[in-house]
Write a structure and sequence with these properties.
single chain, alpha/beta, seven-stranded parallel sheet, 16 helices, globular
């Protein structure tokens, strides 16, 4: 059993912290080569003291200088880099075997691509990379012998079911489960008046702000539908979503013979992370298994696409092609930020996204540069609409 040398892109976020928790249980299997954070210098320092990485990457030059001073005080020799070049460096370094891609949003795209170009094992939590560049990322992975293992609980569940599946023609469909977030029982009228704090208060998962809002709008599930189509090479007609408030069953795979297989687990990201880290072996995660006799009733029902319009928009964009998926992701990031800042109400999030998508044009996407160009234009358009109409 060889030691895996790991770079974590996004070590101070919820996925990064959960990953370090699992890694800490297995010092004989994993060693941290590099950590990449944003500007939480105190937490990066704490992680550096515990895991002693060779490199740390921060957001910018001021945070780099601050961390260097703190590392000197602790007599640590960790080198500090910053910005996009730093993230790409630790994602592609020749010593690294495994990259945990956990930077939130489109900001994680370039470093994930660099990891793929360098033939790394990529544990993917940054779904936006697949939404923006799924076909391109798959192509780069194939050309450079890189591998993608999803960390999202739903995709990880499907990966567990399909990892030994030889014939994709035997798959009738996959069914992604969705908790429905904090507003699953609200009516449309009530949603106009929900607060940011309410939207951030997910009933099952502890996550960062952006993904918490995405879960509340069900955009998160919409992005996962697009991601699943690329990860598992499935047509849109074979991907469904079902509401499952208890978050115990993490998606199903239905086969042509009528069988359905699923993965069960408590709602704790350490479970899928440990599977991805240990693959093809299973390793301890620090999480207890499901006690079937203590479970509440498990519920399943169809999502209301009129109430959760972001999910409907995601299906539409997947059908319309890559450029529309890039526009969807970009305009959503603008809308979520506007909501968090109090510029728009909750129900105006899908409204802003839809108005931006009406300006989008279909296009073949064949390079990262082209993807970033479409992304930038979509953000400009979304901000223009935001400033004019809201």
């Amino acid at each position: 059993m060889s030691m895996k040398l790991i770079s974590i892109l996004g070590s101070t976020g919820s996925i990064g912290k959960s990953s370090l928790s699992v890694i800490n249980l297995h010092p004989d299997r994993f060693k941290i080569f590099a950590l990449g954070g944003f500007n939480n210098v105190d937490l990066l320092l704490e992680q550096a003291i515990k895991f002693k990485p060779s490199y740390i990457v921060t957001k910018d030059l001021p945070s780099k200088k601050l961390l260097i001073d703190k590392l000197k005080d602790e007599k640590l020799k960790t080198k500090v880099l910053f910005g996009e070049e730093g993230y790409s460096f630790i994602a592609s370094h020749e010593d690294v075997t495994t990259v945990i891609a956990a930077i939130t949003g489109s900001a994680g795209l370039i470093s994930t691509v660099e990891a793929a170009k360098s033939g790394k094992q990529i544990l993917l939590a940054n779904k936006e990379s697949m939404v923006m560049a799924g076909d391109l990322l798959n192509k780069i992975c194939l050309e450079n012998n890189a591998t993608l293992i999803p960390i999202d609980s739903e995709h990880n569940a499907i990966f567990q079911v399909l990892s030994s599946q030889k014939d994709s023609q035997e798959i009738k469909k996959i069914i992604l489960t969705a908790s429905g977030g904090p507003f699953r029982e609200f009516d449309i009228e009530s949603l106009k008046n929900v607060t940011v704090d309410q939207a951030l208060n997910h009933p099952n998962w502890k996550m960062g702000k952006k993904i918490s809002i995405d879960s509340a709008t069900m955009m998160n599930k919409g992005l996962e539908v697009i991601e699943a189509s690329h990860l598992f090479r499935l047509n849109i007609s074979k991907i469904e979503v079902v509401m499952h408030p208890q978050s115990i069953i993490h998606s199903f795979v239905e086969f042509i013979d009528g069988s359905s297989l699923s993965q069960l687990g408590n709602p704790d990201m350490r479970v899928p992370i440990s599977y991805a880290l240990g693959y093809p072996d299973r390793i301890t995660s620090g999480v207890d298994g499901v006690s079937l006799d203590k479970l509440p009733n498990l519920e399943f029902f169809k999502p209301d696409l009129k109430k959760f319009r972001c999910l409907d928009l995601s299906y539409q964009c997947l059908a319309m092609g890559a450029a529309h998926c890039i526009n969807l992701n970009a305009s959503n990031e603008v809308a979520v930020e506007a909501f968090l800042l109090g510029k728009i109400n909750f129900m105006q999030i899908p409204e802003l996204i839809e108005k931006t998508l009406l300006k989008a044009e279909a296009a073949d996407v064949n390079s990262v540069e082209h993807i970033l160009e479409i992304d930038n234009l979509a953000r400009l358009e979304a901000n223009n609409i935001l400033n004019k109409l809201f």
